[in-house]
Amino acid sequence: MLFSIVALMLYSIYTTVMSRKPKSEEEQVFNDIEQLRQESGLSRQELADQVGVHYQTIGYIERGEYSPSLVLALRIAAALGVSVEEIFWLEEN
């Protein structure tokens, strides 16, 4: 159990650090995670626990500093009860 928790944390940190590079506007993915999360009454930690990442990863995604993998985007959408298209888009509103 402890090993899987540590492994999950290390994987989350690794993917966050490796993916947190400055992105041009062409590469940026915009999202409404923070608003949808708050409307659902979830903290960053609670959402992170549901989708299997560190809570800081949720913060990075909310601020547009990190673009999630497809699997993570689908997990977030499922946890928030909406479609991926309702959360993520490519052009700034």
| SSE pattern | HEHHHHHE
What overall geometry do the principal axes of the alpha carbons give?
globular
In the predicted model, the low-confidence regions spanning at least 5 consecutive residues are none
How many distinct folded domains?
1
Structural class label: mainly alpha
CATH architecture: Orthogonal Bundle
The CATH superfamily is identified as lambda repressor-like DNA-binding domains
Largest beta-sheet characterization: 2 strands, antiparallel
Helix and strand topology:
Layout lengths: L1 H18 L10 E2 L1 H7 L4 H8 L3 H8 L7 H11 L3 H4 E2 L4
Antiparallel strand pairs: 1-2
Please explain how this structure is put together.
- This protein is mainly α and 93 residues long.
- The protein has one domain: lambda repressor-like DNA-binding domains (434 Repressor (Amino-terminal Domain), Orthogonal Bundle).
- Helices cover 60% and strands 4% of the residues.
- The protein has a two-stranded antiparallel sheet.
- 19% of the residues are buried.
- The mean pLDDT is 86.
Which features characterize this protein?
93 residues, mainly alpha, 434 Repressor (Amino-terminal Domain), two-stranded antiparallel ribbon, 6 helices
